Here is the input.
Amino acid sequence: MGNTAEKLQLADPRTGLLRGEVVNSRQHEIARTVERARMAGGIWARLTPKERECRLSRLAGLIEGHVDDYIQAESAGTGKPAAEVAGEVAQAADLFRFYAWAARTQQSVAAGSFIAEHESWVRWEPMGVVGAILPWNYPLLMAAWRCAPALAAGNAVVVKPAESTPDSAMLLAEHAGQALGADVLQCATGDRKAGRLLVAADIDAIAFTGSLAGGLEVARTAGVRRISLELGGNAPVIVLPDAPDNTYADLAAASTYNAGQSCAAPARVITLEQNYHEVVPRLVDSMRNKTAARDFGPLNNPDQLRRCAGLLNESRAAVKETGPCAPVGAETGGFWQEATVLADLPDDDRAVTEEVFGPVLTVQHAPDLATALRMANGQKQALAASVWTTDLDRALGIASEFNAGEVWINCHMVQTAELPHSGRGCSGSGTDLSTLALHDYQRPKTVTVRLRSLS
Here is the structure.
Protein backbone atom coordinates (compact mmCIF):
# COMPACT_ATOMS: atom_id res chain seq x y z
CA MET A 1 0.00 0.00 0.00
CA GLY A 2 1.42 3.43 -0.94
CA ASN A 3 1.96 6.35 1.36
CA THR A 4 -1.25 8.37 1.41
CA ALA A 5 -0.15 10.87 4.06
CA GLU A 6 -1.17 14.45 3.33
CA LYS A 7 1.70 16.67 2.15
CA LEU A 8 2.59 20.26 3.00
CA GLN A 9 4.48 22.38 0.46
CA LEU A 10 7.43 24.50 1.56
CA ALA A 11 8.64 27.83 0.14
CA ASP A 12 12.06 29.47 0.15
CA PRO A 13 11.60 32.86 1.87
CA ARG A 14 14.49 34.31 -0.14
CA THR A 15 12.73 33.75 -3.46
CA GLY A 16 9.15 32.76 -2.67
CA LEU A 17 9.66 29.66 -4.83
CA LEU A 18 8.60 26.16 -3.76
CA ARG A 19 11.47 24.12 -2.37
CA GLY A 20 9.93 20.80 -1.30
CA GLU A 21 7.27 19.17 0.82
CA VAL A 22 6.84 17.30 4.10
CA VAL A 23 4.14 15.21 5.76
CA ASN A 24 1.23 17.28 7.02
CA SER A 25 0.52 15.25 10.15
CA ARG A 26 -3.05 14.41 10.99
CA GLN A 27 -4.78 12.47 13.77
CA HIS A 28 -3.28 9.09 12.83
CA GLU A 29 0.31 10.34 12.57
CA ILE A 30 0.10 12.37 15.78
CA ALA A 31 -1.44 9.49 17.76
CA ARG A 32 1.24 7.05 16.61
CA THR A 33 4.02 9.51 17.38
CA VAL A 34 2.71 10.15 20.91
CA GLU A 35 2.28 6.42 21.51
CA ARG A 36 5.90 5.78 20.56
CA ALA A 37 7.00 8.68 22.80
CA ARG A 38 5.08 7.18 25.72
CA MET A 39 6.88 3.87 25.35
CA ALA A 40 10.31 5.42 24.84
CA GLY A 41 9.77 7.91 27.66
CA GLY A 42 9.34 5.15 30.22
CA ILE A 43 12.80 3.83 29.36
CA TRP A 44 14.35 7.30 29.21
CA ALA A 45 12.94 8.33 32.59
CA ARG A 46 14.45 5.26 34.28
CA LEU A 47 17.97 6.12 33.13
CA THR A 48 20.28 7.54 35.75
CA PRO A 49 21.18 11.22 35.45
CA LYS A 50 24.68 10.14 34.45
CA GLU A 51 23.30 8.03 31.59
CA ARG A 52 21.09 10.87 30.38
CA GLU A 53 24.05 13.25 30.61
CA CYS A 54 26.16 10.97 28.42
CA ARG A 55 23.45 10.70 25.76
CA LEU A 56 22.61 14.41 25.72
CA SER A 57 26.32 15.19 25.39
CA ARG A 58 26.46 12.75 22.50
CA LEU A 59 23.61 14.65 20.83
CA ALA A 60 25.49 17.92 21.31
CA GLY A 61 28.48 16.31 19.64
CA LEU A 62 26.39 15.22 16.66
CA ILE A 63 25.13 18.78 16.22
CA GLU A 64 28.70 20.07 16.31
CA GLY A 65 29.82 17.34 13.93
CA HIS A 66 27.16 18.24 11.36
CA VAL A 67 27.33 22.03 11.47
CA ASP A 68 27.13 22.42 7.70
CA ASP A 69 24.04 20.21 7.54
CA TYR A 70 22.33 22.28 10.23
CA ILE A 71 23.27 25.53 8.54
CA GLN A 72 21.79 24.31 5.28
CA ALA A 73 18.61 23.04 6.97
CA GLU A 74 18.08 26.21 8.98
CA SER A 75 18.80 28.53 6.06
CA ALA A 76 16.41 26.62 3.80
CA GLY A 77 13.42 27.45 5.96
CA THR A 78 14.41 30.86 7.30
CA GLY A 79 16.62 32.40 4.62
CA LYS A 80 19.04 33.56 7.32
CA PRO A 81 22.63 34.37 6.36
CA ALA A 82 25.03 31.53 7.10
CA ALA A 83 26.92 33.56 9.72
CA GLU A 84 23.73 34.03 11.76
CA VAL A 85 22.84 30.38 11.53
CA ALA A 86 26.32 29.18 12.46
CA GLY A 87 26.12 31.09 15.72
CA GLU A 88 22.69 29.65 16.48
CA VAL A 89 23.85 26.09 15.77
CA ALA A 90 26.70 26.60 18.23
CA GLN A 91 24.26 27.92 20.83
CA ALA A 92 21.97 24.92 20.34
CA ALA A 93 24.83 22.49 20.91
CA ASP A 94 25.88 24.45 23.99
CA LEU A 95 22.35 24.24 25.41
CA PHE A 96 22.28 20.46 25.13
CA ARG A 97 25.66 20.31 26.87
CA PHE A 98 24.46 22.69 29.58
CA TYR A 99 21.33 20.64 30.33
CA ALA A 100 23.32 17.41 30.12
CA TRP A 101 25.26 18.79 33.07
CA ALA A 102 22.07 19.99 34.75
CA ALA A 103 20.64 16.46 34.57
CA ARG A 104 23.31 15.40 37.08
CA THR A 105 23.14 18.35 39.44
CA GLN A 106 19.45 18.37 40.36
CA GLN A 107 18.65 15.35 42.45
CA SER A 108 16.06 14.41 45.05
CA VAL A 109 16.10 17.06 47.76
CA ALA A 110 16.26 15.85 51.36
CA ALA A 111 13.73 17.80 53.36
CA GLY A 112 14.53 16.59 56.87
CA SER A 113 12.41 15.85 59.94
CA PHE A 114 9.53 18.30 59.73
CA ILE A 115 7.21 15.94 61.63
CA ALA A 116 8.14 14.23 64.88
CA GLU A 117 9.31 10.65 64.33
CA HIS A 118 9.09 11.05 60.55
CA GLU A 119 11.57 11.81 57.79
CA SER A 120 10.55 13.51 54.54
CA TRP A 121 12.15 14.27 51.21
CA VAL A 122 11.13 15.54 47.78
CA ARG A 123 11.58 13.73 44.49
CA TRP A 124 11.54 15.73 41.25
CA GLU A 125 9.92 13.52 38.62
CA PRO A 126 9.39 14.01 34.87
CA MET A 127 5.97 14.96 33.54
CA GLY A 128 5.98 12.14 30.96
CA VAL A 129 5.52 13.21 27.33
CA VAL A 130 6.06 16.87 26.46
CA GLY A 131 4.67 18.43 23.30
CA ALA A 132 6.78 21.37 22.09
CA ILE A 133 5.19 23.73 19.54
CA LEU A 134 7.99 25.71 17.89
CA PRO A 135 7.98 29.07 16.06
CA TRP A 136 9.47 29.86 12.66
CA ASN A 137 11.86 32.59 13.77
CA TYR A 138 14.42 30.34 15.52
CA PRO A 139 13.55 26.76 14.52
CA LEU A 140 16.67 25.04 15.86
CA LEU A 141 17.42 27.34 18.78
CA MET A 142 13.86 27.21 20.12
CA ALA A 143 13.92 23.43 19.74
CA ALA A 144 17.00 23.41 21.97
CA TRP A 145 15.44 25.87 24.45
CA ARG A 146 12.42 23.58 24.85
CA CYS A 147 13.79 20.07 24.28
CA ALA A 148 17.06 20.22 26.21
CA PRO A 149 15.58 20.92 29.69
CA ALA A 150 12.60 18.64 29.05
CA LEU A 151 14.90 15.77 28.10
CA ALA A 152 17.29 16.45 30.96
CA ALA A 153 14.35 16.27 33.35
CA GLY A 154 13.54 12.76 32.07
CA ASN A 155 10.71 13.41 29.61
CA ALA A 156 10.17 12.19 26.08
CA VAL A 157 9.45 15.04 23.66
CA VAL A 158 7.43 15.46 20.48
CA VAL A 159 8.30 18.67 18.66
CA LYS A 160 5.96 20.26 16.13
CA PRO A 161 8.01 22.82 14.17
CA ALA A 162 6.35 25.71 12.38
CA GLU A 163 4.90 24.63 9.04
CA SER A 164 7.42 26.71 7.06
CA THR A 165 10.58 25.65 8.95
CA PRO A 166 10.61 21.90 9.69
CA ASP A 167 14.07 21.17 8.29
CA SER A 168 16.35 21.58 11.32
CA ALA A 169 13.89 19.95 13.74
CA MET A 170 13.72 16.90 11.47
CA LEU A 171 17.50 16.69 11.42
CA LEU A 172 17.64 17.11 15.20
CA ALA A 173 15.16 14.26 15.69
CA GLU A 174 17.25 12.06 13.39
CA HIS A 175 20.38 12.71 15.42
CA ALA A 176 18.45 12.31 18.69
CA GLY A 177 17.45 8.82 17.58
CA GLN A 178 21.14 7.97 17.28
CA ALA A 179 22.24 9.64 20.51
CA LEU A 180 19.34 9.28 22.93
CA GLY A 181 17.54 6.17 21.71
CA ALA A 182 14.61 5.58 19.40
CA ASP A 183 11.57 7.87 19.78
CA VAL A 184 12.82 9.81 22.84
CA LEU A 185 12.73 12.97 20.71
CA GLN A 186 10.48 12.92 17.66
CA CYS A 187 9.38 15.49 15.10
CA ALA A 188 5.80 15.79 13.86
CA THR A 189 5.67 18.09 10.85
CA GLY A 190 2.59 19.91 9.64
CA ASP A 191 0.46 23.02 9.73
CA ARG A 192 -1.38 24.69 12.60
CA LYS A 193 -3.98 21.94 12.67
CA ALA A 194 -1.16 19.46 13.34
CA GLY A 195 -0.13 21.60 16.30
CA ARG A 196 -3.71 21.64 17.61
CA LEU A 197 -3.88 17.86 17.28
CA LEU A 198 -0.67 17.49 19.28
CA VAL A 199 -1.94 19.77 22.05
CA ALA A 200 -5.17 17.76 22.22
CA ALA A 201 -3.32 14.43 22.21
CA ASP A 202 -2.46 12.23 25.20
CA ILE A 203 0.53 14.27 26.33
CA ASP A 204 1.35 15.50 29.82
CA ALA A 205 2.80 18.98 29.27
CA ILE A 206 2.92 21.56 26.50
CA ALA A 207 5.61 24.11 25.69
CA PHE A 208 4.39 26.69 23.20
CA THR A 209 6.25 29.60 21.64
CA GLY A 210 4.17 31.87 19.41
CA SER A 211 1.45 34.49 19.39
CA LEU A 212 -0.81 35.55 22.24
CA ALA A 213 -3.84 34.22 20.36
CA GLY A 214 -2.12 30.89 19.87
CA GLY A 215 -1.07 30.72 23.52
CA LEU A 216 -4.61 31.39 24.71
CA GLU A 217 -5.90 28.60 22.47
CA VAL A 218 -3.27 26.23 23.87
CA ALA A 219 -4.26 27.16 27.42
CA ARG A 220 -7.94 26.49 26.71
CA THR A 221 -7.19 23.08 25.21
CA ALA A 222 -4.58 22.09 27.80
CA GLY A 223 -6.97 22.34 30.73
CA VAL A 224 -5.17 21.33 33.92
CA ARG A 225 -2.05 20.04 32.16
CA ARG A 226 1.25 21.88 32.63
CA ILE A 227 1.93 24.58 30.05
CA SER A 228 4.89 26.86 29.39
CA LEU A 229 4.11 29.84 27.15
CA GLU A 230 6.43 32.34 25.47
CA LEU A 231 4.13 34.73 23.63
CA GLY A 232 6.33 37.46 22.27
CA GLY A 233 7.30 40.95 23.23
CA ASN A 234 7.35 44.57 22.16
CA ALA A 235 10.54 45.54 23.91
CA PRO A 236 10.95 49.13 25.11
CA VAL A 237 14.33 50.85 24.96
CA ILE A 238 15.05 53.97 27.02
CA VAL A 239 17.89 56.05 25.56
CA LEU A 240 19.05 58.83 27.90
CA PRO A 241 21.09 61.93 26.89
CA ASP A 242 24.31 60.39 28.24
CA ALA A 243 23.94 57.14 26.29
CA PRO A 244 27.29 55.69 25.16
CA ASP A 245 28.42 56.19 21.58
CA ASN A 246 27.84 52.54 20.66
CA THR A 247 24.12 52.82 21.45
CA TYR A 248 22.80 53.50 17.96
CA ALA A 249 24.90 50.97 16.05
CA ASP A 250 24.13 48.31 18.67
CA LEU A 251 20.39 48.99 18.53
CA ALA A 252 20.44 48.84 14.73
CA ALA A 253 22.29 45.52 14.86
CA ALA A 254 19.92 44.04 17.46
CA SER A 255 16.76 45.23 15.70
CA THR A 256 17.81 43.83 12.32
CA TYR A 257 19.28 40.54 13.56
CA ASN A 258 17.07 37.77 12.14
CA ALA A 259 15.24 40.56 10.28
CA GLY A 260 13.85 41.74 13.61
CA GLN A 261 11.95 38.48 14.07
CA SER A 262 12.98 38.08 17.70
CA CYS A 263 10.57 38.27 20.61
CA ALA A 264 13.13 40.17 22.67
CA ALA A 265 14.33 42.47 19.86
CA PRO A 266 14.42 46.21 20.58
CA ALA A 267 11.25 47.73 19.17
CA ARG A 268 10.14 50.93 20.93
CA VAL A 269 12.87 53.52 21.50
CA ILE A 270 11.83 56.09 24.10
CA THR A 271 13.99 59.12 24.76
CA LEU A 272 13.69 62.44 26.54
CA GLU A 273 12.56 65.53 24.68
CA GLN A 274 15.94 67.19 25.24
CA ASN A 275 17.80 64.62 23.12
CA TYR A 276 15.02 63.38 20.83
CA HIS A 277 16.26 65.38 17.83
CA GLU A 278 19.71 63.86 18.26
CA VAL A 279 18.50 60.28 18.71
CA VAL A 280 16.32 60.13 15.58
CA PRO A 281 19.00 61.04 12.99
CA ARG A 282 21.61 58.85 14.68
CA LEU A 283 19.27 55.86 14.64
CA VAL A 284 18.37 56.58 11.01
CA ASP A 285 22.05 56.68 10.03
CA SER A 286 22.74 53.40 11.83
CA MET A 287 19.72 51.63 10.32
CA ARG A 288 20.67 52.81 6.82
CA ASN A 289 23.92 50.91 7.27
CA LYS A 290 21.95 47.68 7.58
CA THR A 291 21.16 46.27 4.15
CA ALA A 292 18.47 43.62 3.64
CA ALA A 293 19.76 40.53 1.76
CA ARG A 294 23.31 41.47 2.74
CA ASP A 295 23.30 41.97 6.51
CA PHE A 296 20.09 40.13 7.37
CA GLY A 297 17.63 37.75 5.81
CA PRO A 298 14.00 37.99 4.70
CA LEU A 299 10.82 37.78 6.72
CA ASN A 300 9.73 34.21 6.99
CA ASN A 301 6.51 33.98 5.05
CA PRO A 302 4.12 36.04 2.92
CA ASP A 303 1.63 36.50 5.77
CA GLN A 304 4.30 38.07 7.94
CA LEU A 305 5.45 40.31 5.08
CA ARG A 306 1.89 41.51 4.49
CA ARG A 307 1.36 42.17 8.18
CA CYS A 308 4.62 44.10 8.58
CA ALA A 309 4.04 46.13 5.41
CA GLY A 310 0.50 46.88 6.53
CA LEU A 311 1.64 48.23 9.90
CA LEU A 312 4.24 50.43 8.20
CA ASN A 313 1.80 51.73 5.60
CA GLU A 314 -0.88 52.48 8.19
CA SER A 315 1.51 54.17 10.58
CA ARG A 316 0.87 57.86 11.17
CA ALA A 317 4.57 58.52 11.73
CA ALA A 318 5.72 61.81 10.21
CA VAL A 319 9.20 60.34 9.76
CA LYS A 320 9.56 57.08 7.84
CA GLU A 321 13.15 56.29 6.92
CA THR A 322 13.94 53.03 5.12
CA GLY A 323 17.30 51.45 4.42
CA PRO A 324 18.48 49.63 1.27
CA CYS A 325 17.92 46.10 0.01
CA ALA A 326 20.69 44.34 -1.90
CA PRO A 327 19.96 42.52 -5.17
CA VAL A 328 18.83 38.95 -4.52
CA GLY A 329 19.65 37.38 -7.86
CA ALA A 330 17.53 36.49 -10.86
CA GLU A 331 14.43 35.84 -8.78
CA THR A 332 12.47 38.94 -7.91
CA GLY A 333 10.32 37.26 -5.25
CA GLY A 334 11.08 36.65 -1.62
CA PHE A 335 9.77 38.18 1.56
CA TRP A 336 12.17 41.07 2.01
CA GLN A 337 11.61 44.01 4.35
CA GLU A 338 14.11 46.84 4.63
CA ALA A 339 15.33 48.27 7.94
CA THR A 340 12.97 51.09 8.94
CA VAL A 341 12.77 53.90 11.51
CA LEU A 342 9.40 55.45 12.40
CA ALA A 343 9.45 58.71 14.36
CA ASP A 344 7.06 61.53 15.23
CA LEU A 345 4.23 59.06 15.68
CA PRO A 346 1.35 59.04 18.18
CA ASP A 347 1.45 56.79 21.23
CA ASP A 348 -1.54 54.79 20.01
CA ASP A 349 -0.02 54.03 16.60
CA ARG A 350 -0.32 50.31 15.82
CA ALA A 351 3.42 50.18 15.15
CA VAL A 352 3.84 51.07 18.83
CA THR A 353 1.02 49.10 20.42
CA GLU A 354 1.59 45.90 18.42
CA GLU A 355 4.70 43.81 17.98
CA VAL A 356 5.78 44.50 14.39
CA PHE A 357 8.19 41.53 14.34
CA GLY A 358 10.34 43.01 11.61
CA PRO A 359 13.48 45.18 11.24
CA VAL A 360 11.67 48.26 12.54
CA LEU A 361 12.36 50.76 15.32
CA THR A 362 9.82 53.33 16.49
CA VAL A 363 11.04 56.45 18.32
CA GLN A 364 8.98 58.33 20.90
CA HIS A 365 9.87 61.07 23.36
CA ALA A 366 8.85 61.86 26.93
CA PRO A 367 9.16 65.06 29.00
CA ASP A 368 10.88 63.24 31.88
CA LEU A 369 12.15 59.85 32.99
CA ALA A 370 9.04 58.98 35.00
CA THR A 371 6.89 59.44 31.90
CA ALA A 372 9.36 57.45 29.80
CA LEU A 373 9.04 54.55 32.25
CA ARG A 374 5.25 54.73 32.15
CA MET A 375 5.39 54.60 28.36
CA ALA A 376 7.83 51.69 28.47
CA ASN A 377 5.57 49.72 30.83
CA GLY A 378 2.38 50.81 29.10
CA GLN A 379 2.02 47.93 26.62
CA LYS A 380 0.53 44.53 27.29
CA GLN A 381 3.75 42.64 26.51
CA ALA A 382 6.43 42.42 29.21
CA LEU A 383 9.26 40.22 27.99
CA ALA A 384 12.42 42.30 27.65
CA ALA A 385 13.71 45.88 27.88
CA SER A 386 16.94 47.87 27.85
CA VAL A 387 18.27 51.20 29.08
CA TRP A 388 21.23 53.09 27.64
CA THR A 389 23.17 55.50 29.88
CA THR A 390 26.66 55.90 31.31
CA ASP A 391 25.18 56.51 34.78
CA LEU A 392 25.18 53.00 36.24
CA ASP A 393 23.33 53.92 39.43
CA ARG A 394 20.56 55.50 37.38
CA ALA A 395 20.48 52.53 35.03
CA LEU A 396 20.08 50.04 37.87
CA GLY A 397 17.21 52.09 39.26
CA ILE A 398 15.49 52.08 35.87
CA ALA A 399 16.08 48.33 35.50
CA SER A 400 14.24 47.72 38.75
CA GLU A 401 11.27 49.74 37.48
CA PHE A 402 10.91 47.95 34.13
CA ASN A 403 8.03 45.49 33.92
CA ALA A 404 9.99 42.84 32.03
CA GLY A 405 11.39 39.39 32.58
CA GLU A 406 14.82 40.35 31.20
CA VAL A 407 16.54 43.75 31.27
CA TRP A 408 19.81 44.84 29.65
CA ILE A 409 21.94 47.90 30.39
CA ASN A 410 23.94 49.32 27.45
CA CYS A 411 23.36 46.13 25.47
CA HIS A 412 20.41 44.17 24.11
CA MET A 413 19.66 40.49 23.41
CA VAL A 414 22.76 39.27 25.25
CA GLN A 415 21.87 35.82 26.57
CA THR A 416 23.49 32.64 27.85
CA ALA A 417 22.30 29.23 28.99
CA GLU A 418 22.92 30.04 32.66
CA LEU A 419 20.51 33.00 32.84
CA PRO A 420 16.69 32.64 32.83
CA HIS A 421 14.46 34.14 30.16
CA SER A 422 10.79 34.56 31.01
CA GLY A 423 7.83 36.76 30.21
CA ARG A 424 5.21 38.57 32.23
CA GLY A 425 1.66 39.57 31.45
CA CYS A 426 0.75 38.89 27.83
CA SER A 427 4.29 37.74 27.09
CA GLY A 428 3.53 34.40 28.69
CA SER A 429 4.43 32.24 31.65
CA GLY A 430 7.13 29.74 32.41
CA THR A 431 10.90 29.97 32.14
CA ASP A 432 13.37 29.23 29.38
CA LEU A 433 17.12 28.81 29.91
CA SER A 434 18.97 28.26 33.21
CA THR A 435 18.38 25.40 35.63
CA LEU A 436 15.08 27.06 36.56
CA ALA A 437 13.64 25.82 33.26
CA LEU A 438 13.86 22.24 34.54
CA HIS A 439 10.91 22.90 36.83
CA ASP A 440 8.65 23.59 33.83
CA TYR A 441 9.08 19.92 32.92
CA GLN A 442 9.08 18.29 36.37
CA ARG A 443 6.68 17.79 39.23
CA PRO A 444 7.58 17.31 42.91
CA LYS A 445 6.59 14.30 44.94
CA THR A 446 6.90 14.43 48.70
CA VAL A 447 7.77 11.13 50.39
CA THR A 448 7.35 10.80 54.17
CA VAL A 449 8.33 7.75 56.20
CA ARG A 450 7.47 6.97 59.80
CA LEU A 451 10.60 6.11 61.74
CA ARG A 452 10.91 3.24 64.15
CA SER A 453 10.93 4.48 67.73
CA LEU A 454 14.37 4.58 69.26
CA SER A 455 13.06 4.40 72.82
The two ends are 74 Å apart (CA to CA).
